[in-house]
Design a protein that fits this description.
Elements (H helix, E strand, L loop, with lengths): L6 H5 L7 H15 L8 H17 L2 H12 L35 H4 L2 H12 L9 E8 L1 H6 L1 E12 L14 E3 L8 E6 L2 E6 L8 E3 L11 E12 L8 E4 L9 E8 L5 E4 L2 E9 H6 L1 E6 L5 E6 L8 E4 L5 E2 L2 E2 L2 E8 L6 H14 L4
The structure holds zinc ion (ZN) (2 copies).
The site of one zinc ion (ZN) has 8 residues, from loops.
Length: 365
């Protein structure tokens, strides 16, 4: 299967990146999008695959050379290279890019003629003029407490911007602009398909009809560069896992919207049930049997002393009113759930004590 994406863009490295830089970028991204860290997150899984695929090709000198040749031809420039799902670009059926498994046998002969190139490019782009995505999507995993209480989280994105060197023409300084040899300036090419001639945007000039005698060295002729952009995302209190936040006009080139899909990390102590939060507190067997006073932390970090009555059961819940999540003027409660822990080993003396207790209480063992 032919690659359909710009591997350099996927890894966020320059075309001239060294093997070391590629490896570093791969490690960072693979870690960030690893399925273990993003359970039930199809976007992260997709990114993880892409990153693996990109690394697979770019880390292999032979594969990279072949890939570079194709890339120079303009095959992948600006095609689905966005690491975020391009909703505007996901039109029409077609290949959604190859997977990590089948990239192992990447070979220039797999690309075949222009026909295959078309199917891999236009399968993603959809027919028609090259268009800007209306919105881009990214995802971020936030701590449980931030989701519950609200806050601000910074995200860093490699966002496409108009290339500052060429101002978006894709041409090197002083380059002459020539009529595209592939489409003869029409911007479209036609090829036969089932007896019909189908018009497609020209893959060489990407619909422009012209090609520069020399590509812009900054953007390699793609007319755009990826700029690391740091954005603070305001998280409203009580946001749910999977929620989508729309950031107006924060999309590529300052146009379109940025959609941030929120994933809420699991917390060691808290979990959520609607507006209520459940906090698990371990208690020992003596506390459970005899009762105790225990200190628990609420969601907002306050300490509360909770009285545990004698005979507290494993899993029993104690309510701390109005210490849950506040949303739309309503506030939930906090529940402390007792988890009774048992000693794993008893000394001979302790065993005797437990036996004597059991006999007094009429417990079989
Ligand atoms: Zn440029
Ligand atoms: Zn052309």
């Amino acid at each position: 299967m032919a690659p359909t994406r710009d591997y350099y863009q996927i890894l966020g490295v320059a075309e001239t990146a060294t093997t070391d830089e590629i490896k570093k970028a791969f490690r960072r991204l693979a870690k960030q999008h690893h399925p273990d860290r993003n359970p039930n997150n199809p976007q992260a899984a997709e990114r993880f695959k892409e990153v693996n695929e990109a690394h697979d090709v770019l880390s292999d000198a032979e594969k990279r050379k072949k890939y570079d040749q194709l890339r120079r031809y303009g095959a992948f420039a600006g095609v689905g290279g966005n690491p975020f799902a391009q909703r505007g670009a996901r039109r029409g059926p077609g290949p959604q890019g190859s997977t990590a498994e089948d990239s192992g046998d990447f070979d220039i002969s797999d690309i075949g003629g222009l026909g295959d190139l078309f199917s891999s490019i236009f399968g993603r782009r959809g027919a028609g003029r090259e268009s800007e995505p209306e919105e881009v999507e990214t995802s971020v995993t936030i701590p449980f407490r931030v989701a519950a209480l609200g806050g601000s989280v910074p995200i860093t994105l490699a966002m496409p911007e108009v290339c500052p060197t060429c101002g978006g023409t894709g041409a090197a300084k002083g380059a002459t602009v020539n009529t595209c040899p592939e489409c003869k300036g029409r911007g479209t090419v036609s090829f036969g398909q089932g007896g019909f001639a189908v018009n497609r945007p020209c893959p060489v000039c990407r619909g422009k009809g012209t090609v520069p005698s020399q590509r812009c060295p900054t953007c390699q002729g793609t007319a755009e560069v990826r700029v690391e952009k740091r954005i603070n995302v305001d998280i409203p209190a009580g946001i749910e896992d999977g929620a989508r936040l729309r950031l107006k006009n924060q999309g590529p080139k300052g146009r379109g919207d940025l959609i941030v899909v929120i994933h809420v990390a699991t917390d060691r102590f808290f979990r959520r049930e609607g507006l209520d939060v459940i906090g698990v507190v371990p208690i020992n067997i003596a506390q459970a049997l005899l009762g105790s006073r225990i200190k628990v932390k609420t969601l907002d970090g306050k300490s509360v002393v909770l009285r545990i009555p004698p005979g507290t059961q494993h899993g029993q819940r104690f309510r701390i009113p109005r210490h849950g999540i506040e949303k739309n003027g309503r506030r939930g409660d906090m529940y402390v759930e007792s988890h009774v822990t048992l000693p794993e080993k008893l000394s001979a003396e302790e065993q005797e004590a437990v036996k004597s207790f059991a006999e007094k209480a009429g417990m079989k063992y």
